């Protein structure tokens, strides 16, 4: 009886403490998809409508399984996404969040391109915010940026293999007899920046707020 | 014996978890659009909300697993440790309530802003929250509203090392429209990332570690020094978001 009462409670508390500490007890390794042929030019990449991506797919991208491949001028081949921007009507922001993975994380670089795929501005990884559970990067689109038609995103080549080490407080359950108590210790994790990773792209602005509310997500 | 401790331990744990989860409410992060705010040159800094005393927290204190009595024991430990930390900082020469505003001012100036440190005191019920009414700031382009939600040291558990932690909550408002043009959290040692997932996180210096409270008592100058480092890092982190 005591066991049946204690075990579910323990499971709930363990799950909650794992969620609080951000621990991932089971890491399933997905098989790597076949590598797509690498595009030599940006125009060869298949573009994704960023509005559709945000409103219909919750902005979720995987810079691995879904990505195209782009050959940079340096000869380096990297997974890349080409996002097609809406016509500029009013200022808005594009927020990109790259959650930390197991052992790796993505430090993105963004090139804003015109309709001819020429770079108008670049936002490098040094502009990314190192947040608790992700790297984030925001691009503001104002009237002065109305000529920007595409957003090209890939891992910043200048910041590959950078190390990130974090120490957090971790909850642990200590079982004593048929009861338990919550204790804690430090957990240090190290990651390095990779060419791959997941991304969530959000559009921020009044013109998107209403659409988001009507769809009832985000 | 067991029955008397098991139920309270569940309630105690649940209470701790509830408090931790309640802190998970997402902060409305808003980056500053510098291109739309090119006229931002003069920043007025409202009086900064600060804790009365430095905190010395054991995040997963065993006492919290043992019901009301355990929680009372832990609260007494934390209070005593906080009072000791007051003395340690005094011995170490850190007047943190004056130092943080000075650090904010110097970091903003280094980032190229003209800074007005507004005089006066923050309302007693708003030392741990944003202001409901902004102070007058004639001549300023924007008002910086800051409060410190954590200041002191933390240990993960009773047997864990203590590390400095300073958590700053910040928002910048247009002085004329009072519209929020920037809002973010800058946490030096974000020891519970699940409770502040969006906070800009600065890892503490690897040398800023005290094995236990006895080590802190024995080295008040170092206790003060690492908190000084943490304050400066947070001030620089804030200025970097605005420049």
Can you walk through the features of this model?
- The complex is a heterodimer of chains A (218) and B (243).
- With 218 residues, chain A is an alpha+beta fold.
- Chain A has a domain at 48-160 and 195-205: Jelly Rolls (Sandwich), CATH 2.60.120.
- In chain A, 17% of the residues lie in helices and 43% in strands.
- In chain A, a hairpin with a 2-residue loop joins strand 12 (163-176) and strand 13.
- Chain A is globular and about 70 Å long.
- Chain A starts with a helix and ends with a helix.
- The model of chain A is unreliable at 1-28 (pLDDT under 50).
- Chain B is an alpha/beta fold and 243 residues long.
- Chain B has a domain at 34-52 and 96-242: Double Stranded RNA Binding Domain (2-Layer Sandwich).
- Chain B has helices at 2-22, 67-92, 96-110, 213-218, 220-242; strands spanning 42-45, 55-58, 114-117, 142-155, 162-174, 180-188, 200-202.
- In chain B, strands 1, 2, 3, 4, 5, 6 and 7 form a 7-stranded mixed sheet that branches.
- In chain B, strand 5 (162-174) and strand 6 (180-188) form a beta hairpin.
- The longest helix of chain B has 26 residues, at 67-92.
- Chain B is elongated.
- At the A-B interface, helix 1, strand 9, strand 10, strand 12 and strand 13 of A face helix 1 and strand 7 of B.
């Amino acid at each position: 009886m005591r066991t049946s009462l204690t075990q579910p409670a323990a499971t709930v508390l363990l799950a909650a403490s794992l969620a609080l500490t951000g621990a991932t007890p089971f890491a399933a390794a997905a098989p790597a998809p076949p590598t797509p042929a690498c595009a030599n030019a940006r125009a060869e990449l298949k573009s994704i409508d960023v509005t559709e991506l945000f409103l219909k797919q919750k902005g979720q991208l995987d810079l691995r399984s879904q990505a195209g491949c782009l050959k940079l001028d340096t000869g380096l081949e990297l997974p890349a996404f080409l996002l097609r921007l809406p016509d500029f009507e009013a200022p808005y922001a594009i927020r990109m969040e790259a959650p930390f993975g197991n052992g790796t994380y993505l430090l993105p670089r963004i090139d804003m391109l015109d309709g001819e795929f020429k770079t108008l501005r670049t936002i490098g990884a040094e502009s990314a915010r190192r947040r608790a559970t992700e790297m984030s990067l925001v691009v503001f689109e104002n009237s002065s940026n109305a000529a920007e038609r595409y957003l090209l995103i890939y891992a910043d080549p200048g910041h590959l293999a950078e190390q990130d080490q974090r120490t957090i407080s971790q909850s642990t359950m200590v079982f004593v007899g048929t009861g338990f108590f919550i204790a804690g210790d430090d957990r240090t994790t190290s990651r390095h920046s990779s060419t791959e990773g997941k991304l969530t792209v959000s559009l921020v602005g009044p013109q998107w707020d209403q659409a988001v509310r009507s769809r009832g997500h985000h | 014996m067991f029955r008397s401790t098991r139920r309270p331990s569940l309630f105690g744990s649940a209470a701790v978890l509830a408090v931790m989860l309640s802190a998970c409410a997402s902060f409305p992060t808003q980056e500053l659009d510098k291109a739309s705010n090119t006229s931002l040159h003069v920043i007025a800094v409202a009086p900064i909300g600060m804790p009365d005393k430095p905190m010395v927290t054991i995040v997963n204190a065993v006492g919290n697993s043992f019901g009301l009595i355990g929680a009372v024991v832990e609260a007494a430990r934390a209070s005593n440790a906080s009072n000791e930390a007051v003395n340690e900082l005094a011995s170490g020469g850190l007047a943190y309530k004056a130092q943080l505003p000075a650090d904010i001012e110097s970091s903003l100036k280094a980032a190229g802003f003209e800074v007005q440190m507004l005089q006066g005191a923050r309302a007693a019920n708003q030392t741990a929250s944003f202001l409901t009414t902004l102070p007058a700031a004639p001549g300023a382009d924007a008002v910086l509203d800051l409060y410190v939600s954590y200041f002191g040291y933390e240990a993960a558990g009773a047997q864990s090392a203590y590390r400095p932690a300073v958590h700053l909550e910040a928002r910048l408002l247009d002085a004329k429209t009072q519209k929020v043009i920037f809002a973010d959290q800058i946490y030096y040692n974000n020891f519970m990332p699940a409770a502040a997932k969006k906070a800009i996180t600065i890892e503490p210096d690897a040398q800023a570690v005290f094995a236990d409270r006895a080590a802190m008592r024995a080295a008040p100058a170092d206790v003060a020094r690492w908190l000084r480092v943490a304050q400066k890092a947070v001030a620089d982190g804030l200025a970097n978001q605005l420049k």
